């Protein structure tokens, strides 16, 4: 019996932070270790180039960093195929054929792309590659005949677009060689979304409000000590607020079953007054350290031999390419452009 295929990936534009960890990495490792799926995880460097064309050095550095992040959280190249998008030319070729099945108006309607265009302030100079990236994402997904694509809610329009392309292609060329994928989304809007240290709804590189998987213990300590709590909780004896207090929010996310009694007691004490922020932060630090210390250690270990990390990526890319080449060949036959 063949296993359902999962494809997921990230744009390599920096290192991964706790938001990525809570929102997707943890889940990927769980899915990998369930052993029920065949998983492909990839670094979407070509997608990153669509809005960072002049920063190819940054993207190159990010490839090494994100690969280390992957390995250190427990993605395992002996179980999952980890690869780099740009090393699979078949993906660009598929994109080319799919482009003819998608109108410009359809691309311009994509809500996520619209938001990004506004955020990035492209003005009149939207790179055409950027507008087209949802089509290249469809190529990523279909090349591996992925059944399931675990992504955040902001990626729904990309899955929808991919499904449309699959239907259109299969219809146009009277084939069933492409598979319609399903998105695997977080259970609810808030789930898997980690706010920033400053209380902003989202942890992000541009806001500078994140803890990185690569941060050392001292950096994590400083960041936790700077976390947004309750601005009206001035003296220790003042009653404090739990809602919107990042320390308690993070405790809810990172606390395990066995921590629940302690967390509950702290919440009550804090609300009553008499519990200072330094104490709650020290406790959070312990909880975070339990999770992050092993990741940090593994990261340092893998980082000793970057040659080996890139070897792993090369091998992953080779086996991914074989899969994509098979799909491309089916696509070309369906289109009747297999001339020789
Ligand atoms: N668009 C995704 C992001 O910004 C990255 C990505 C590119 C992706 N191709 C994909 C995710 C295919 C899942 C499947 O995070």
UniProtKB/TrEMBL annotation:
UniProt-recorded Gene Ontology molecular function terms: ATP binding; tryptophan-tRNA ligase activity
Residues engaged in binding ATP: 11-13, 19-20, 152-154, 194, 202-206
Subcellular location: Cytoplasm
EC number(s) on file: 6.1.1.2
Residues spanned by motif 'KMSKS' region: 202-206
Pfam families: tRNA-synt_1b (PF00579)
Residue intervals passing through the bilayer: none
Chief place where the protein resides: cytoplasm
Record-linked SUPFAM superfamilies: Nucleotidylyl transferase
Residues the entry annotates as binding L-tryptophan: 140
Reactions the enzyme catalyzes: tRNA(Trp) + L-tryptophan + ATP = L-tryptophyl-tRNA(Trp) + AMP + diphosphate + H(+)
Source taxon at top rank: Bacteria
Keywords: Aminoacyl-tRNA synthetase, ATP-binding, Cytoplasm, Ligase, Nucleotide-binding, Protein biosynthesis
CC terms in the record's Gene Ontology section: cytosol
BP terms from Gene Ontology: tryptophanyl-tRNA aminoacylation
Motif annotated as 'HIGH' region, chain positions: 12-20
Subunit structure: Homodimer.
Family classification: Belongs to the class-I aminoacyl-tRNA synthetase family.
Function statement: Catalyzes the attachment of tryptophan to tRNA(Trp).
Identification of the protein by name: Tryptophan--tRNA ligase
Organism of derivation: Streptococcus bovimastitidis
